[in-house]
């Protein structure tokens, strides 16, 4: 009987965590979730932290190693509906802007690597760089309000724009911000 009560308690706790995760996976983007330079608490105007993530090929990638490039750092997860719509659009941006010194780094916070790989099978080729952070270090460090959250970082490593949540119209705004920084 005690085992059944513990199992039921565990199920309730897991359902509560899933509900919290679903609530955090916001569909709103461009409006209230977007912040430009000078906004403050989201890190805009501050140097991006030197986060180290693991690429899917197993090699480490330090965000600082991308200095000199304009970077779009996207925090996403396979369980987040807006994230799944956003990633192919970010991949198209990566393809278009790569030649201008723009790097798109999409970091999954999924606990299970298999979930990341399963989603990536939806496309035969990805132009963006995909990394996996199952321990959630990137989310703990950046504290995004919504999933997904994209950080536009200039060539000096300073966060210039943050887009929290995602709607398809956000892609054009993100691309414009990246292009503006790439021209400077």
Written description of the protein model:
This protein has 184 residues and is α+β, with helices and mostly antiparallel strands. It has a single domain, classed as Glutaredoxin, CATH 3.40.30. Helices cover 37% and strands 21% of the residues. The protein has 5 helices and 8 strands. An 8-stranded mixed sheet has the order 1-8-7-4-5-6-2-3, covered by helices on one side. Helix 2 links the parallel strand 4 and strand 5. It is globular and about 40 Å long. The termini are far apart.
Distance linking N and C termini: 67 Å
Query: How many runs of DSSP E, i.e. beta strands?
Result: 8
What portion of the residues fall into strands of 2 or more residues?
15-25%
Mean pLDDT level? 82
CATH topology: Glutaredoxin
Note the main attributes of this structure.
184 residues; alpha+beta; Glutaredoxin; 8 strands; disordered N terminus
Q: What's this, in brief?
A:
The chain has 184 residues and is an alpha+beta fold.
